[in-house]
Amino acid sequence: MLSRPPTKITLTNEDIIAYDQRKLTRDAMREQQTDSSQSQDTSHSTVENGDTSLDQDVTQDLTPAQQTRAARAQKARMDREARMGIGGGSRG
Fold first, then answer.
1. Angle formed by the axes of helices 13-39 and 64-84, to 10°?
2. Burial classification of residue 16, based on how many CB atoms lie within 10 Å of its CB (0-12 exposed, 13-18 middle, 19 or more buried)
3. What pLDDT is recorded for position 33?
4. Contact criterion met (CB below 8 Å) for 71 and 42
5. What is the pLDDT of residues 50-61, one digit of tens each?
6. Residue 48: partners with Cβ closer than 8 Å, 6 or more residues away
7. At residue 5, what are phi and psi to the nearest 5 degrees?
8. 83 vs 37, which has greater pLDDT?
9. Which of 86, 45, 42, 62 lies closest to 24, judged by CA?
């Protein structure tokens, strides 16, 4: 059997940030679906914002517990970005 050398995978900071954003959005939507299915909400409200970040408009639709989780996740993301040297949005 022939063996090949292992494939090297490289991740950029942008890849990690994009993954974190998708995960935050997915988790918030999952929480919202869980809450609405438990309360049998019939409003069917949706967010039609092309931005995937959890901004002020999206967090207003969340329960206080979801807002707390989102804030903790945001802080963890900012701490992680600071450790990688990309935090604060000040690129140059």
1. 170
2. middle
3. 84
4. no
5. 444 445 555 567
6. none
7. -65, 150
8. 83
9. 62
